[in-house]
Specification:
The chain is mainly β. Helices cover about 5% and strands about 45% of the residues. The chain has a seven-stranded antiparallel beta sheet with strand order 1-20-17-22-15-12-11, with no helix packed on it.
Length: about 325
């Protein structure tokens, strides 16, 4: 009998991933009330503003100076998939696209040959706290697609299927689960080819219950991240939160959840199996391509920055919306 568990590892910042994934971070920040200008109604003294990644009072400013988040920065050669379960993210990019998304929405952006974007976390509530829970996943592009045109898409939470049973729910952000398919990913994505069996699932399993994760159809990399709960047991091995589990994709995995409800993120996919050269926001196949990306960004700024501020945020009274590069506006 094949063992279900290949290895267990502690989660850091970022989380360890397997090909075709490059990177995954989990942000959980208990922001205070907003100050009316979408920043925190709290002192910023004692923070390393511009590079505030240390949790202080339950939250971080990241690269933001007045509003938490990540001001404009470039990407090339991969895709970002941003899942906002709680709170909001304001997106702006060099294509002219923009959006405010949250409460379960997902943004899927193909950087391709190059794009700048900003991701800010506006604190919209002035009367109560502003909790943010967010995953950002980097999915690699194969060499043939690293120079495709950038692409921006929103997967609204109303359109993302959730399969519920008596004791579990599975949100299907990418891939197929129990014959239910996720919304289409970006067209040039590694996930767009069903043969690559890319899956991104957010799984909740009730306390003191058992759930069976079905085996994959092909030989893929498969990692289960246990990010909230008390403990679980798989094949007699006990695992606590803040651990990842590399799973054997060829077997069903029985998960026994102890104590509190268990919360998991599953990432799986067929490995691309190409060389990876990384430097900050650029992911290519060779160091020469990295140098070329840096030079092109210095010269072209990947189209420039059409917004008034590097840390651009949208009007406080805006709801959830997406403005696409062709001017199409979708409001929720």
């Amino acid at each position: 009998m094949n063992a279900a568990i290949q290895s267990i590892f502690q989660l850091g910042f970022p989380w360890q991933t397997q090909d075709p994934f490059l990177f995954c971070v989990y942000h959980l920040d208990y922001y205070p009330k907003g100050n009316g200008d979408m920043g925190p109604a709290a002192s910023l003294n004692g923070r390393n503003l511009g590079n505030d990644f240390t949790i202080k009072d339950g939250w971080r400013m990241y690269h933001g100076q007045t509003i938490p988040g990540f001001p404009s920065h470039p990407h090339r050669g991969f895709e970002t998939i941003t899942i906002v379960n709680k709170g909001f993210c304001d997106h702006s990019d060099s294509l002219g696209a923009a959006g405010r998304f949250g409460q379960g929405d997902v943004q899927w952006m193909t950087a391709g040959r190059g794009v700048q974007h900003s991701e800010m976390f506006p604190l919209l509530n002035s009367e109560r706290e502003n909790t943010l829970e967010l995953f950002q996943i980097w999915l690699n592009l194969p060499s043939k697609d690293k120079y495709v045109d950038p692409h921006f898409a929103m997967l609204w939470h109303e359109d993302i299927p959730v399969i519920k049973t008596e004791n579990s729910s599975v949100k299907i952000i990418a891939g197929t689960y129990q014959n239910t398919k996720a919304p289409d990913p970006a067209p040039n994505s590694w996930a767009a080819n069903l043969n690559n069996e890319v899956a991104i699932w957010n799984i909740h399993i009730d306390a003191n219950s058992t759930y069976t994760l079905p085996k994959a159809n092909t030989k893929v990399s498969r990692t289960l991240y246990f990010y909230e709960g008390e403990s679980i047991e798989i094949e007699g091995k006990s695992v606590t939160p803040n651990f990842g589990i590399k799973l054997n994709p060829a077997v069903d995995v029985i998960i026994n959840v102890k104590g509190k409800t268990g919360y998991f993120l599953l990432l799986q996919g067929k490995p691309i199996e190409e060389p990876v050269a990384k430097y900050g926001p650029f992911v290519m196949n060779t160091n020469t391509e990295i140098q070329q990306a840096m030079h092109e960004y210095q010269v072209t700024q990947f189209g420039g920055w059409p917004w008034p501020h590097a840390d651009n945020v949208h009007d406080k009274n805006e709801g959830r919306f997406a403005k696409y590069p062709d001017g199409t506006l979708v409001e929720k």
